[in-house]
Protein 1
Amino acid sequence: MKKTILTGLRPTGNLHLGHYFGAGQNYVRLQDDYDFYLEIADVQALTDNFDNPEKVRKNVFEITKDLLAIGLDPNKVHFFIQSQIPEIAELTVFYSNLVTVARLQRNPTVKTEISQKKELFGNNGESITYGFLGYPVSQAADITAFDGEVVPVGDDQLPLLEQCREIVRKFNSIYGNVLKEPQQVLSKTTRVKGLDGNEKMGKSLGNAIYLVDDDETIRTKVMGAVTDPSKIKKDDPANPDVCMVYYYHKLVNNEENINKICSECKQGSRGCVQCKKELIEAMKSFLEPIQERRKFYEDNPEEVKKVLEEGTKAAREKAMAKMCEIKKAMKIDY
Ligand code: ATP
Ligand code: MG
């Protein structure tokens, strides 16, 4: 029998290259070998977007189209909407007894995110909501409701998985051996840098190339990408390792071109404008098949709805069966 994978993405915007190389590419690779449940985590998205339900609803469909566009096959992957699986919410309540508030406050991922969301949660996290602080608990519910054994993650997600394992161990020690401890599969690329040279490409950092970006947008973004600041004139030799244009060539171009670009840049026989123009073309070729597949789903929104309906139905059945086991163990199976 195939092992179960559970992973999810928050529907708060379209997918960018960071999501693709840090997560999506890994999903595509794994879809043949696992029973794959892919959660569109709308409830989790609401924890920091509770005042913007339209945004979350719209992005449920946007992100599903993006995920289909990168080559996830709905015959292999169950796409489901988190809010439509009440067992996850129920489990979150049960697990909330098994984790301390102090432990959640110490979770490195939660800590970083709280400090990034000052507008919402205050300068020192003094306005943190119960819901946001508890999202790792709901993530443990997501994973264990499906007996998720394998979870593909970026390195920023590892503390969340560790939190899940702690909850699993605690649950099993009290109620019996019912839950599985999930293992991570890390992506080959753990962190994609932003156009501005920032260590992370991120939606809220405004430094991302999105899979849906059209030619003109790509052109503008690539032309503005950060290059080696020590290179002033076209024929100055430069260091490709500090250049974002070379960095993206390495992601989307072929090996022969990458080697050529690297040596020409070091020798000073390649200007940045030329290099950027070539990157625009390489980026467009990379995105073309993705955007072509996406267009099918844009033209056929009923297909997207069908994928979500069928996936959610399969996920609900699986979660309901697991819930029976859990309630029995907790002696609340009246
Ligand atoms: P935000 O800026 O709102 O936090 P984001 O662009 O960081 O948004 P998330 O929804 O937080 O996107 O990302 C979901 C997951 O996708 C991350 O946990 C990570 O595993 C992966 N991911 C996001 N950005 C990158 C990146 N630049 N490089 C590698 N992986 C990434
Ligand atoms: Mg993020």
Protein 2
Amino acid sequence: MPAYFDHNATTPLHPAAREAWLRASEKHWHNPSSLYREAGFASQALESARERLGDLLGAEAERIVFTSGATESNNTLFAGLARCLPPDACVAISAIEHPCVREAARAWLGRARVVEIPVDAEGVVQPDVLKRLLLEKQPALVSIMAANNESGVLQPWPELLKMCREHGARFHSDAAQWIGKLDASSLGTCDYLTGSAHKFGGPKGTGFLVLADEAESFPLLLGGPQESSRRAGTENYPGIEAMVTALEVITPRLSEVAQTQTALRDAFAASMKQAFPDLRIISEGAPRLWNTVLMVMPEHSNLKWLTRMSRAGFAISTGSACSSGKEGSSVVVQALGTDWEELKRVVRVSGGWDSTAEDWSALAEAFIEVAKGL
Ligand code: PLP
């Protein structure tokens, strides 16, 4: 693949994560719940990985439950709330949540108990809007993603978290797109936090949910007493070790990467706007992830762009991976009130930590070449 620009869908396995996975699989393949010495070592290694992840997130290790990824983490949270909350309690979620928050909340709690928090024209939750909603609806929990997977928009989550605390609501953030791209060291202050390894160079099928406190227990998967009876099933220690290693390796590089990649991404956006004067970049005026550009192309359907770009050797997307293949199903763009015709022309590019200036300029050139043939 000459140039991969779909890092918000998934990332390649980081070499350090691969090494860690192999080492863990060879050395500690035993079941951490078994009672002999080698199993004890596997259990110790698992607990050490939990401590290291807690350090990276600023969360007590005891609050971390390892899962198969963000989808499971979010389902665990809402299924648990459905069991614990009083029947008349509601939760509030932002209008641009990933389907595994939106659909999970609606399915587990019932649509009537899920209130939507509107976003402004740039896709950001405004604190005064949240404050009004907290006063009017008094939700038990507010769920607002840290960074959006489609537009890359960042939410002012520390301010929103503080406001929820002041109004007695718990705060959850799906930080699957933030972790590994921006400083995650204070995300553990959220009551609940969701993360996914494959978004930051870890393996697929591994993630975590940080709970509000260590005593809290609302398992989605029932069975054995693994994860302190909070998630049944033999722990995927090699995957967990690889996930934590990926985050440890990437974290010290983040400020340098953000600086370099923001400049490259903005140069790409400028070239695109020059080549296509009617092109619109969604949420351009808001703080965004350094790797993401969500564009409304001036003409032609996004599927046409996607297939032609793929033939030219570039992997891009129509929006979120969950909606790819379905023209114009971007949740974010719909929440921003974009019309149906425009929705069909939405294209997302998302670069990586090591995308080069050549990669970004080749991407812009490929769009220009493809346009000539359309
Ligand atoms: N939440 C967000 C914000 C995402 O971007 C994704 C992946 O697309 C998910 C959740 C789902 O993650 P996973 O593939 O780990 O279930």
Protein 3
Amino acid sequence: MSVLVAPSILSADFAALGDAIDAAQRGGADLIHVDVMDGHFVPNITMGPPVVKSIKRVAKVPLDVHLMITDPDKYIDAFADAGATMMSVHVEVLPHLHRTVHAIKALGVRAGVVLNPATPPVMLEDIAADVDYVLVMSVNPGFGGQTFIPRSESKVREVRELLDRAGNRAPVAIDGGIDQQNVAKVVSAGARIIVAGSAIFHTPDPERATRELKAAALAAAMSVPL
Ligand code: DX5
Ligand code: ZN
């Protein structure tokens, strides 16, 4: 699989989300990453199903919905109805992760699981065969514009190996502090879905920033075929 770029609209102007999505898509965005926060699991509040539904009307690419909420089981139906193509949930909040992953899949949605920076890859051991993707957080979730945590690079490698051992070629995604400077190293480590917010939307030209980030990611993937 090639590399997919997923601009995170958390760093876009919420009063002009349609324009932000258009620009990212013109730049070659493969997915739109939507950060859902509840002010409980993370110290920030963002958007819910009605906003996702509106985004769905204007987006031409699939929506990747990242649920940073304490009780995802309550809301997965609503986000599926709103138009999520992919949905990821945090292992830190789910005692019955296997049930949740299969509930997401039963809705026809690709199921991802997310690891916070302090959560070790071993937490995936018993779910590795079931997931459609794994998202490695390279910052503590809650805000855009934070600095990439260096340990995340080796973590991507370890998660890739763990999935391979489970016979699962599902992609590893990375989210947090990704930019033109560090994208090559995370792709070389095995990341195949690149989430980026401020490196795209906190620039004067998000279309161009998307295009350049994708070019850098694809170049890195070419040089280290997995
Ligand atoms: C962080 C979110 C990220 C965030 C990334 O809690 O999950 O998706 O938008 O933003 P940057 O790329 O600015 O770190
Ligand atoms: Zn995210």
